[in-house]
Specification:
One of its GO terms (biological process) is methylation. This protein has helices at residues 2-11, 17-22, 29-35, 52-59, 72-84, 102-105, 127-136, 201-210, and strands at residues 42-46, 64-69, 92-96, 111-116, 138-149, 174-177, 193-196, 214-221, 233-235, 238-240, 251-257. By secondary structure, the protein is an alpha/beta fold. Helix 7 (127-136) crosses helix 8.
Length: 259
């Protein structure tokens, strides 16, 4: 499924790679504020897709970035994008591999920053195994930074986000068979079956804490990067509920350090 969608994402307006090549920075303002200065640091991006977030960290000064994804076409697209920006593999490397086996796939044993961006964890059935793998790749004195869509949004109605219609604590696999992609709902696709899992906020935090990482902060944000609910409007570069509408957390972010 992901292999088939890579050409759609590379060519489409959602990722707008022509604009990215002109200004290679698509990171959200809360991410850059919370991660801080990355100058001279090494960064590993797990589940990097076509590498736009990964390369944005390089643009912001990271000495070396490494992106890992299980889709070979996505990795090839990321390598091509990096080369077009003038980054050789010594500055920006991309490797194909399962995130659970990342320690065997990436070129270095550890990194100053291990980063996971929006929309990644829902594809993983075992959040504890993910946490153990991610934590093992954080260098002493380094940290893991995660930004993810808040799981509470999946329990609410899609129209207004005011009614609970789904079980927040559901652990069963959710199987979908839908054509198109979030980047282009009208795209013609053949491989349409996908499987997702819901991980509560408590599951994610507890999984990371069990690895020995120190949870430095957990922040919740009332903005989204896509129209999650039908009544959303765009203000300040984000999708939000209308003024006066009760707010809920739409994204969360956390930082977990290794002593």
């Amino acid at each position: 499924m992901w292999d088939e969608r890579v050409p759609v994402h590379v060519a489409g307006d959602f990722y707008d790679l022509d604009a990215f090549r002109t200004r290679p920075d698509v990171l959200r303002d809360f991410e850059t504020a919370e991660v801080g200065d990355v100058t001279g640091r090494t960064l590993l991006h797990l589940q990097c897709h076509i590498g736009t977030d990964t390369l944005s960290w390089a643009h912001r000064g990271a000495a070396r970035v490494v992106g890992l994804d299980f889709s070979a076409p996505a990795v090839e697209a990321a390598r091509a994008l990096a080369a077009g920006l003038g980054h050789g593999p010594e500055r920006a490397a991309f490797v194909t591999g399962d995130v659970y086996d990342a320690a065997q796939s990436v070129p270095e044993a550890s990194y100053d920053i291990v980063y996971t961006g929006l929309g990644a964890l829902c594809w993983l059935p075992d959040i504890r195994r993910w946490a153990e793998t991610a934590a093992s790749l954080v260098a002493p004195g380094g940290f893991l930074y995660l930004a993810e869509f808040h799981p509470v949004t999946e329990s609410l109605d899609d129209a207004t986000g005011t009614r609970i219609v789904r079980d927040y604590f559901a652990r069963d696999a959710q199987v979908w068979d839908e054509p198109g992609t979030y980047a282009d709902p009208d795209a013609e696709t053949v491989h349409n079956r996908s499987v997702q899992w819901q991980h509560t906020l408590g599951d994610v935090v507890s999984a990371l804490a069990a690895t020995g990482l120190h949870i430095e902060f957990l922040h919740e944000h009332d903005v989204s990067v896509f129209p999650r609910f039908e009544n959303f409007e765009v203000r300040g570069g984000y999708h939000r509920f209308p003024d006066g509408h009760p707010r809920i957390p739409l994204i969360y972010s956390l930082k977990a350090t290794k002593g």
